[in-house]
From TrEMBL, chain A:
Function, as annotated: Mitochondrial membrane ATP synthase (F(1)F(0) ATP synthase or Complex V) produces ATP from ADP in the presence of a proton gradient across the membrane which is generated by electron transport complexes of the respiratory chain. F-type ATPases consist of two structural domains, F(1) - containing the extramembraneous catalytic core, and F(0) - containing the membrane proton channel, linked together by a central stalk and a peripheral stalk. During catalysis, ATP turnover in the catalytic domain of F(1) is coupled via a rotary mechanism of the central stalk subunits to proton translocation.
Encoding gene (name): LOC105043809
Main localisation: mitochondrion
Pfam families (UniProt xref): ATP-synt_DE_N
All residue ranges annotated as the ATP synthase F1 complex delta/epsilon subunit N-terminal domain in the record: 75-147
Protein's name in the database: ATP synthase subunit delta', mitochondrial
Transmembrane segments: none
GO cellular component: mitochondrial inner membrane; proton-transporting ATP synthase complex
Organism: Elaeis guineensis var. tenera (Oil palm)
Automatic annotation (TrEMBL), chain B:
Cellular location(s): Mitochondrion inner membrane
Protein name: ATP synthase subunit epsilon, mitochondrial
Main location: mitochondrion
InterPro entries the record matches: ATP_synth_F1_esu_mt, ATP_synth_F1_esu_sf_mt
Quaternary state and interactors: F-type ATPases have 2 components, CF(1) - the catalytic core - and CF(0) - the membrane proton channel. CF(1) has five subunits: alpha(3), beta(3), gamma(1), delta(1), epsilon(1). CF(0) has three main subunits: a, b and c.
Entry keywords, A to Z: ATP synthesis, CF(1), Hydrogen ion transport, Ion transport, Membrane, Mitochondrion, Mitochondrion inner membrane, Transport
Similarity annotation: Belongs to the eukaryotic ATPase epsilon family.
Organism, as annotated: Elaeis guineensis var. tenera
Record lineage: Eukaryota, Viridiplantae, Streptophyta, Embryophyta, Tracheophyta
Amino acid sequence: MYRQAPRLLIRALDGGRGGRLIGRAFSTGVPVAPVEDSAFVEAWKKVAPNLEPPKTPLSFMKPRPPTPSSIPSKLTVNFVLPYQSEISNKEVDMVIVPATTGQMGVLPGHVATIAELKPGLLSVHDGNEVTKYFVSSGFAFIHANSIADIVAVEAVPVDRIDPSLVQKGLADFTQKLSSATTDLEKAEAQIGVDVHSALNAALTG
Amino acid sequence: MASAVAGSSAAVPFWRAAGMTYITYSNVCASLVRGCLKEPYKSEAATREKVHFAISKWANGKPEKPTIRSDSPEE
């Protein structure tokens, strides 16, 4: 069933853009200029000529920014946490994100990707300066127009990590892992070991 | 997160196999990282973990007395 998915998706996309709708266009493909429903506006003006017609959610949506035809020279990064915005609209040369599939380097012109992040180091490279953060987990969305949105639950600059606490945590959780009985305890201990070893690697690497 | 053609033989992460959801996993990771910080940052981070909410069960169309749950990270 899933093997047909790419073929069906391509059919739907072509139908939307070509005008002849074989399948429905994606709802996120908002047209470049927001359109108003003229029939509704006419009917509204007849009934309530002095009131402005209400705006629909579609008119509030910003149209999808166009993918530039040539690869931009810089990557725009937005890095947000639930309680603050670490980096907002900064133009950099490269970011390296700790994806579950390994450290992934993102350059301008990177293919659009959604990556789940594992606990690890995120580094932002701009010219010669490198800023490193330790990310607990999150997602990285790289868009086709060289904008990268990274969201994390918790991220700290590497110099705020206390090495002794990391070692202690690693020892604790390794011990818990060997003495764990239920599946859930094993999973929690494993998570502890993973996070603390990643913290350790970030401090020494 | 690719799945094999033959239905649900996808490799699941170990925490999901143990019955944990992604949100729980993510929150556990975050609180472990918060616990490894140097001092002034550690106490600031501890304030981020506080939860305070009230739950009331409904019976016969009326809310019963709400129970207030106020968690601090030490639990």
